[in-house]
Design goal:
The chain is an all-alpha fold. About 75% of the residues lie in helices and about 0% in strands. The model is unreliable at about 165-170 (pLDDT under 50).
Length: about 190
């Protein structure tokens, strides 16, 4: 795990945002992590971006709170974040990675329809964050592998958002590159 102090503060901020029902702050925290994930391609940082974004999407849906299992889900969410914060404070890397995995597993361990909704949110969040990492210049194939999504899902999502159409994401043709080099040396 890279940047432990940053990740520790990120989860402390996320916990406060969850308690305040501050979805915007959760999204901002997730977006900050995407940049680090793109640079380091560290699986833990990628998982963090997906988890925090997923939490924001789940909290955004007020109707989920009326479903059976919501109270257990919310209690487990805060408990797992506390365990993760404790692991980070004690510099226990194995426990941090295990806590990240447990956080995702326990968030999905609810019953009934809420479980299906939460699993779908995590899947969509993975695709969304994969597209953001791709936007930072990592190849589609590498990004899909890092986030465990299919290349088809990612390319379909990225195509709909226009991420691949960003001018900065295009490379210059051979003739344009030669011309640029000639201008640099003339």
């Amino acid at each position: 795990m890279l940047e432990k102090e940053h990740i520790l503060q990120l989860f402390k901020d996320a916990k406060e945002a969850i308690k305040k029902d501050d979805i915007i702050t959760l999204r901002e925290l997730s977006n900050k992590t995407v940049h680090t994930s793109s640079i380091s391609q560290d699986p833990d940082n990628i998982a963090i971006a997906v988890i925090i974004y997923s939490i924001s999407k789940i909290l955004e849906r007020k109707d989920y709170r009326m479903k059976p299992g919501w109270d257990k889900f919310y209690k487990n969410l805060l408990l797992e974040i506390d365990l993760l914060i404790d692991s980070l404070e004690n510099n226990d890397e194995k426990k941090v990675s295990k806590s990240l995995g447990n956080l995702r597993i326990k968030l999905g361990n609810v019953s009934g329809n809420l479980k299906k909704y939460i699993q779908e949110v995590f899947r969509q969040a993975s695709i969304n964050k994969a597209s953001r990492i791709y936007e930072h210049g990592i190849s589609l194939e590498k990004t899909a592998k890092l986030l465990g999504v299919s290349l088809w899902e990612l390319s379909n999502y990225a195509g709909q958002t226009g991420i691949g159409d960003v001018k900065l994401g295009k490379t210059l043709g051979v003739k344009e590159r030669i011309k640029l080099v000639e201008e640099m040396f003339s």
